[in-house]
Design goal:
This protein has 369 residues and is of the alpha+beta class. Helices cover 40% and strands 11% of the residues. It folds into two domains: 17-238, Endonuclease III, domain 1; 251-368, Nucleoside Triphosphate Pyrophosphohydrolase (Alpha-Beta Complex), CATH 3.90.79. A hairpin with a 2-residue loop joins β1 (251-260) and β2 (263-268). It starts with a helix and ends with a helix.
C-alpha cells in the first residue's frame, strides 16, 4: 500500500531531539557566541542593556538588505536622529532623502510612521511585548519577535534567513520554503537559552552568517555539528530546500531627462505603491511588452521641445518581482521654461541630497553622461 505525497512529507517532518546532545545545544550556542559574537554598529557590548531604538532601527534596515550595506546608513540615521522622538519630528521628505539608495522604500515610510506613533501614542518608549510591537506601523511578526527578544529579552525566537539555514540543516527539514517556515520556527525555539533569549537569537544569526554559510559551510567549527542531520548526510548545501521562483515579466518604459542650464526636471512619485514618495525624472508607465512608441507618447509637455533625443542603450534594473528596461530620452529647454504641473527644477549639483532611488540615479547618469 503506497503513501500519498502529503503523508510522505508528514513522515519526513523532523521532531526535536530529546537526547543529551539536543539538550546541550542552547548552552553550546551561547558559549560559542560569547567568544565569537560579531561587532556590529547596533549591537551593544556584552553585559550592556540594548537600546530598543537602535534595535528597531537596525531591524527595519536589515529587512532584505545585508549587514555591510546597512552599517553606514544606520550610523547616518543615528547621528542625524539619535532617538525615536527626534526621528518622529523629522519630515518624511528628509527621511526619504537619507534612505535613498537603500531600496525597498516602503520601509522608510513605515519607519517614519512608526517613530511618530511611538512618540505620540507610547510616550516615546517602544512596547516591550510582541503584541504591542506588532501594533506599530511596519513591524510584522519577525521584526516584533526580534525586537522583543533582543531589546527586551522576551523568550521568543525570530527566524531570519540565517536561522532558517542553520535549523533546516540541523534537522534536515525536507519541506521547501516557504512551506517549511512553521516547522523551522518550532524547531528554532528548541535552541533558546533559559535566560538569554536575545543572545540566543543573535548567536544563531551570527552562526549562519559566519559558519553555516550558504556555500562551503565550516562545519568543523560549528558548535552544533554533533548530531547535525545534514552534516551526517553530507548534503548541507542543499538546505534549506526552496521551491523554484517564478520570474516576473520584463517591463519596459521610457524616462525623460530634461535640463535647463544646470538644472534637472524632476517630480515626486505617488505616496503609495512602488518607490512611493521618492523623487524621479518624468517617465512613462512601466508595462510588459510596451512598445517604445507607446512609451514616448507619455513624454511631458514642455515649451520649446519638439523632438526628443534618444540615448543609445537602455537602463536596466531588477526589482523584487520584475526586471525593468528603460529607454532614456533627453532634451534641453530655455532658461525661463516653467516646470509642468507637479514637477520642479532642481540643481544638478545638489542631486545627492534628493530622495532618488537607484534606478533613477542610473537613468540620470545615462542621460547626462
Amino acid at each position: 500500500m503506497s503513501l500519498s505525497g502529503a503523508a510522505l512529507r508528514r513522515k519526513k517532518t523532523p521532531v526535536p531531539d530529546r537526547d543529551e546532545t539536543a539538550a546541550a545545544r542552547p548552552a553550546l550556542l551561547l558559549a560559542w557566541y560569547d567568544r565569537h559574537r560579531r561587532v556590529l554598529p547596533w549591537r551593544t557590548p556584552a553585559g550592556h542593556r540594548p537600546d530598543p531604538y537602535a534595535v528597531w532601527l537596525s531591524e527595519i534596515m536589515l529587512q532584505q538588505t545585508g549587514v555591510k550595506t546597512v552599517g553606514p546608513y544606520f550610523q547616518k540615521f543615528l547621528a542625524r536622529w539619535p532617538d525615536v522622538a527626534a526621528l518622529g519630528r523629522a519630515s518624511l521628505d528628509d527621511v526619504l532623502r537619507m534612505w535613498a539608495g537603500l531600496g525597498y522604500y516602503s520601509r522608510a515610510r513605515n519607519l517614519h510612521a512608526c517613530a511618530v506613533a511611538v512618540s505620540r501614542d507610547h510616550g516615546g518608549a517602544f512596547p516591550d511585548s510582541e503584541e504591542g510591537l506588532r501594533s506599530l506601523p511596519g513591524i510584522g511578526p519577525y521584526t516584533a519577535a526580534a525586537i522583543a527578544a533582543i531589546a527586551f529579552n522576551r523568550r521568543t525566537m525570530p527566524v531570519d534567513g540565517n536561522i532558517e539555514r542553520v535549523v533546516s540543516r540541523l534537522y534536515a527539514v525536507e519541506d521547501p520554503l516557504p512551506q517549511a517556515k512553521p516547522v523551522i520556527q518550532k524547531l528554532a525555539t528548541t535552541l533558546l537559552g533559559e535566560a538569554r533569549a536575545g543572545d540566543s537569537a543573535q548567536a544563531l544569526m551570527d552562526l549562519g552568517a559566519s559558519i553555516c554559510t550558504p556555500k562551503k559551510p565550516a562545519c568543523s567549527l560549528c558548535p552544533l555539528n554533533e548530531g547535525c542531520a545534514a552534516r551526517q548526510r553530507g548534503d548541507q548545501e542543499t538546505f534549506p530546500r526552496k521551491a523554484p521562483k517564478k520570474a516576473g515579466d520584463l517591463r519596459r518604459g521610457a524616462a525623460f531627462v530634461v535640463t535647463r542650464g544646470g538644472e534637472l526636471l524632476v517630480r515626486r512619485r505617488p505616496e503609495k505603491g512602488l518607490l512611493g514618495g521618492m523623487t524621479e525624472v518624468p517617465g512613462s508607465d512601466w508595462r510588459a511588452a510596451q512598445a517604445d512608441e507607446a512609451a514616448l507618447e507619455q513624454a511631458p509637455k514642455l515649451a520649446g521641445v519638439t523632438r526628443w533625443r534618444r540615448r543609445l542603450g537602455v537602463v536596466t534594473h531588477v526589482f523584487t518581482h520584475f526586471p525593468l528596461e528603460l529607454v532614456v530620452y533627453t532634451a534641453e529647454v530655455a532658461a525661463r521654461t516653467r516646470a509642468p504641473k507637479d514637477m520642479r527644477w532642481v540643481p544638478i549639483a545638489t542631486l545627492d541630497g534628493e530622495a532618488l532611488p537607484n534606478v533613477m540615479r542610473k537613468v540620470i547618469a545615462h542621460g547626462l553622461g
